[in-house]
Amino acid sequence: MQDRLHILEDLNMLYIRQMALSLEDTELQRKLDHEIRMREGACKLLAACSQREQALEATKSLLVCNSRILSYMGELQRRKEAQVLGKTSRRPSDSGPPAERSPCRGRVCISDLRIPLMWKDTEYFKNKGDLHRWAVFLLLQLGEHIQDTEMILVDRTLTDISFQSNVLFAEAGPDFELRLELYGACVEEEGALTGGPKRLATKLSSSLGRSSGRRVRASLDSAGGSGSSPILLPTPAVGGPRYHLLAHTTLTLAAVQDGFRTHDLTLASHEENPAWLPLYGSVCCRLAAQPLCLTQPTASGTLRVQQAGEMQNWAQVHGVLKGTNLFCYRQPEDADTGEEPLLTIAVNKETRVRAGELDQALGRPFTLSISNQYGDDEVTHTLQTESREALQSWMEALWQLFFDMSQWKQCCDEIMKIETPAPRKPPQALAKQGSLYHEMAIEPLDDIAAVTDILTQREGARLETPPPWLAMFTNQPALPNPCSPASVAPAPAPAWTHPLPWGRPRTFSLDAVPPDHSPRARSVAPLPPQRSPRTRGLCSKGQPRTWLQSPV
Amino acid sequence: MSYIPGQPVTAVVQRVEIHKLRQGENLILGFSIGGGIDQDPSQNPFSEDKTDKVNGWDMTMVTHDQARKRLTKRSEEVVRLLVTRQSLQKAVQQSMLS
C-alpha cells in the first residue's frame, strides 16, 4: 500500500511536469518546479523536526506549497484548454468582431490585517491550568497567486490576531477575487484534546496496516484543509501538527478603500475542532488598489495646443497621458526631469473628449478637444496631433483610459498609496507573543520637562542641599523596622523579563526569581508571604522578609 | 537626615494619569507594583518610582495588599497617581541651574 502511494505520488508529479513542458510555458513551469522542490524540502524538514514550533512552521510551508502547486496546476489546465480550443476553431484574421477592450492591470495590496477574538471566559484572571495556545496564519489567493502571512501564536491574553505583513499582488484585474483563509493549529499536542473524530481514523489505520494506514489517515484528515486532494499530495508526516481552516472570506473591488474597513468572515470550523478559536466574525484590513493607468503613462507624443486667448498661435508641446491628467511639457525631457509642465489638462470621469470636426473652420486637421466642467464654466482645450494615425492612437488611449476608469471605479479617484512589502525575515525562535501591553512603555523623561517647567515658575528657590524626602530612596532605615511606601515597578523594564506562569498580560514584569504558581502575587523570599493587613500601617514586631510584586 | 516612616513628608512629585485598558471583561493597568509598608525594602531590585497617592488615597503607609486593591478597583477607569522618584530631584536642580 505504501509503495502504491509512492508510485501514485510520483506519477502525479510526473504528470504535472509533463503538462508544464508541453505547454512550453516557461514561467509557470519554473514556478511549478520551484514549488515542488520547496515541498520536498518542507517534507524533509518536517520529518526531522523535534520541536513543536519548528514543526508548525514546516507544516505551514507544506500547506502553502501544496496550495500553490494545485493552483498552478489549475492554471496550466486552463491554458492548455484555451490553447487546444484556439487551435481547433480558426478565425479568419480580417473578419470577426474586434477584440474586446480589456481593462488595465493593477496592483492590489492588503495590509494591517486584524482579526478580533471574543473570549467569553469570565474566569480570565484566574487562569486554570496551562495556557492554551494556537498557531495561526492567513493564506491569501488572487488568481493563481498564493501568498501567506507570518505565523502568529495566539493565546487568551490577545484581544486580536494582528498580522504585520503587507501582501501585494501585482497583476490583478478590476474583477479580482481575493480569497482570504485563516488556518489554525494547536501548539500543544492534539492527542490530549481530541476525541471522537479520531476514533474512526484509528480504526481505519489499524485495519490497513499501521504505517500505510497512518499515511492514509493523515492525508484524509488534511483533506479538510486547503482542499488538496488526498491522493495527489499526501501529507508525509505522521503525528505532526495539523492546520484546520478556521474562517474564510472573499474580497473584491467593492471592498477597496484607502483606509480601514471591516469585513465579515465566514466561520468554517466549530467548537469540536481542536483548533477552534473564538473568532468575533470579522476581519479588519486596508485593501488598496493601484491601477496601472494611474501610475504609468499610457500615451505620449507631440501635440500642438491652442494657447489661451490666442487664436492663431499654437504651442508645440510634448504630451504625456498619465493617470487622470494630460501633462503638456515644453520638451520631452521635462517629463523625466520633473520639470513643471506648461499645461495640465484633467482627464477624468466627467471629461468629454471629441475628435475634431470642431476646428475645421480654423483649417487645422487632426484635432481633438477635451472639455471639463468647472462649476458653471466649461473649459475646452483643443489639441492638434501630427497625423491621422497619431489622432487615432491618442483617441484610442483616451477611450482605454475612460474604460479603465469605469472598471476600476473608486480606485481612480486618487492614487492609493501602496508600500512595497519588505522581504519577510525568516521565522526566528518563536518568543511568546504578547499583547498590546508589550508595546506600552511609559516614557517619564518627557514628563520631567513639564514638571521642571512648572517648578521653575512656582518655586524659583535654589535647591542645593538634597531635600529630606530623597532619603526614601537611600534604603537606609531610620527605625529598626524598615518600611517604605509602596513602590511602583516602572513599565520599561531592564533586560531580564520572565514570562508570567499563568498568562496575565505580559508586561515588563520585574521578576527577579523564577516564579511559583501562586495566582496573584509572587514572593521573592523563601518564607511564605505575610499577607495579614496592618491597617495602622505600623510595622509588625518581626522584620518583614518579603518583597511582593503584583500585576495590576 | 533620613526619612522616618509615619511622619509627614514633603516631596517633589509627578502627577501621572493612567486610563485603564480593557482586557476581556476586566480593566487593567498593565504594570506591576512591588513593596508596601509590610514589605522589606532592602529586597527591592529597583529604587525608582514611589507612589504617594492613588486617586486621592494616601499610599505612603499602605501594605502591599492595600496598594494593590486601591489600584485595581473595578469601578474606576482612570487612575491618577502622584509619583516621586530620585531623578526628579536631579531634573529640578538642573532646571534651576540653567
UniProtKB/TrEMBL annotation, chain A:
Cellular-component GO terms for this entry: actomyosin contractile ring
| GO MF terms, alphabetically ordered | GTPase inhibitor activity
> Is the keyword Coiled coil in the record?
yes
The family database entries (InterPro entries) matched by this protein are listed as: AHD (IPR012966), Cytokinesis/Rho-signaling (IPR051364), HR1_rho-bd (IPR011072), PH-like_dom_sf (IPR011993), PH_domain (IPR001849)
Query: Might you name a Gene Ontology BP term for this protein?
Result: mitotic cytokinesis
List each copy of the REM-1 domain by range: 10-85
Q: Which UniProt key words apply to this protein?
A: Coiled coil
Give start and end of each PH domain. Answer: 296-403
Q: SMART domains, from UniProt?
A: Hr1 (SM00742), PH (SM00233)
Q: Where is this region: Disordered?
A: 83-103, 507-552
- UniProt keyword Calcium present: no
What Pfam families does the record tag this protein with? Anillin, PH
Gene3D superfamilies, alphabetized:
Pleckstrin-homology domain (PH domain)/Phosphotyrosine-binding domain (PTB) (2.30.29.30)
Among PANTHER family, the record links this protein to: ANILLIN/RHOTEKIN RTKN, RHOTEKIN
Protein's UniProt name: Rhotekin
Give the organism the record lists. Answer: Pan paniscus (Pygmy chimpanzee)
